[in-house]
Amino acid sequence: MASVMLSGTEKLTLRTLTGNGLGFTGSDLHGKNFPRVSFVATTSAKVPNFRSLVVPKCSVSASRPTSQPRFIQHKKEAFWFYRFLSIVYDHVINPGHWTEDMRDDALEPADLNDRNMIVVDVGGGTGFTTLGIVKHVDAKNVTILDQSPHQLAKAKQKEPLKECKIIEGDAEDLPFRTDYADRYVSAGSIEYWPDPQRGIKEAYRVLKLGAKACLIGPVYPTFWLSRFFADVWMLFPKEEEYIEWFQKAGFKDVQLKRIGPKWYRGVRRHGLIMGCSVTGVKPASGDSPLQLGPKEEDVEKSVNPFVFALRFVLGALAATWFVLVPIYMWLKDQVVPKGQPI
Fold first, then answer.
1. How are strands ordered across the β-sheet holding 49-56?
2. Whether residues 217 and 183 fall in one domain
3. Position 100 in a domain
4. Are residues 80 and 49 in the same domain?
5. How many whole angstroms from its chain centre is CA 169?
6. What are the tens digits of pLDDT across the range 52-104?
7. Could you give the CA distance from residue 179 to residue 199 in angstroms, rounded to a whole number?
8. Which entry of 26, 37, 51, 234 is 20 to 30 Å from 241 by CA?
9. Based on the structure, what is the number of domains in the chain?
10. Last residue of a domain, one of 247, 281, 315
11. What is the CA radius of gyration of the chain?
């Protein structure tokens, strides 16, 4: 039954045009780059002209009403969720959704080209992404920030990260001064941000003039059952939303690169916990020009215990689906002959 539910492949029609668009580059998941691609703009933000662009006739990301209720786990549920998941995170999540090949591919647009760079790894968790960063930057110049002490405890145990600064903190309220870092990296954190725009605004603030942010996160599924579990569990943004958030925060030269496990063979209908790498350059010193209201979630406020328990349990059940999907895709990759769609 599972094979029937998960069968089918995405059909994507491409056409070329000249004009405005939201630009990104992509990968076929085997290391080869797609041509520059753009989505038709869904925001009034001005973007630069490109000479020749390729546009999906239908968006790769499924549509989602802006009014749709968010039943996802937020910071409080995530804190306790990772209290237990931290025990097996590197052995369960990484092999299916965040491999070393994916990590290195996703970090490539960040241009980590100087060992003396100051880098902040926001939502760094167990330090898996940080291990990729310290290949290019001295560990003493890297700060790992996460709200989960249980995840950070795992990072502290990793020898290559011994010289990193490790602190607890909030991605939407970073404890760094304005114009501080040469690079901002965040992988697998945006899923739990109640207000993604605020987190990306903070990324802009802490970077120096001309510095670059690299945010790595999930993509919204097109398959109906994966969409259901995605909305129950955590935030899976559309590709267009990532670009819009970056542009509204003030970033320039915003690019999106698709990533994924090799055995997915480019299939994106189920969404990926790590599905794209988005980069942007800070064009001016100081804070972001974007003005925002109060935070969406106040972690100090009391939460209805029933609602908390319900979201925690539903999120844990939904997470199981996204553990099974890569196993299913890996099995299909082993069975289906190479060159045929899976």
1. 14-20, 49-56, 37-39, 22-24
2. yes
3. yes
4. no
5. 18
6. 222 333 334 444 444 344 555 566 656 655 555 545 556 566 666 688 999 99
7. 16
8. 51
9. 2
10. 281
11. 19
Nearest to 31 by CA among 106, 139, 115, 125: 106
Task: Kindly state the DSSP code that residue 41 receives in the 8-state scheme.
Answer: P
CA-to-CA distance for 302 and 280, rounded, in angstroms?
36
- Residue 217: inside a domain: yes
Question: Residue 46: which domain range?
Answer: 13-56
Q: What is the mean pLDDT of the chain?
A: 77
In a shared domain, residues 186 and 250:
yes
In a domain, 303, yes or no: no
- In angstroms, the CA 61 to CA 290 distance is 26
The answer to whether residues 96 and 327 touch, using CB atoms and an 8 Å cutoff, is: yes
Residue 297: other Cβ atoms inside 10 A: 16
Is 321 inside a domain boundary? Answer: no
Give every strand in the sheet of 142-146, ordered side by side.
165-168, 142-146, 119-122, 181-187, 207-219, 272-281, 252-258
Q: What is the total residue count of the chain?
A: 342
Ranges assigned E (strand) in 195-334: 207-219, 252-258, 272-281
80 and 40 in one domain? no
